[in-house]
Amino acid sequence: MFLYQNINDHVRILGYRGFDGFIRVPERIGGRTVTELSAYAFSGGWGREEMLSSLKEEILLCDEEGNPILTENKDLPPAISLEGLKEIYLPETIEKIGNYAFYNCFELTRLTCSAAILDLGSGLFTGCSGMRYLDIHLVDGKRSCLKEILSELRQLLYVNYYTSQGNARLVFPEMYEESVEHTPARIIIREMHGCGHMYRYCFDQTGFQFHKYDALFPHLLVQESERVIGELVINRLYSPMNLLYHDRMVYEAYLLEHIEEISKLAIEDEIMFLWLMEEYAKNQDKFDSIVEIVSREDKPELLSHLMDLRRHRFPVKKRVFSL
């Protein structure tokens, strides 16, 4: 159940109580549109308690479908915060998220939201070390908040980017800062590690620029692990939204050279894996090597698909005998 307040003709979410860490915020509660998450809504500790104690308006409760309910305190389930929150879905109606709304939610792994959120508070994801997945939906004619969200998340991040013109699967590498003391000069130098900061600058104002993203591939080759490189390459080719011909050729050259390693990364996504084999596994020796990889993973259905493809792609030549 959600804690909320009626603010004029809209609703502000104050928190959630329940036993399930996978939360879907409703679009409407009691006929009013849900437009806001309060500060510290899903954080724990003094910040949330102080926020709740400072409220002057009545705190109300509703169920997961947005139906107002009445209950006594003794019947309330525990508050979801910190280790309790795993994934959260925000409706397109959300326009504002208060400061530190997810502060120290270190088990939070996925956020689904609209890119048209107008007001993002500071420190939203402070302490959210487990965040890995962002599903963001762009709205035609409205500014995007993706740049602001990415600036708050410095870890390796997988972004599903949804638009009315198409979708893309993007990988943003990790970045982190290090403070190094320069004793003779008596100054502290801030050093940036990883190329994740460059990938987070691929914007023209608030609009994401695919060509800038793809042009950073040489930096990725030098600074990141083979796993990160492979994941970015296969996701970009699998969802080639606004992918220029030259960049496609660069990605494909890398994929063909490392197809065995990349197939290991794709094996958990059956649809992507089969697409990879259909589109790029044209070399018989490498194909057979990938078949061995799949056989060791104990995936009989996937292996059956591969063997069918192998029979069609590399048919056994009939022997010809001459007498």
TrEMBL record:
This is Leucine-rich repeat protein. It comes from Lacrimispora xylanolytica. The lineage of its organism: Bacteria, Bacillati, Bacillota, Clostridia, Lachnospirales.
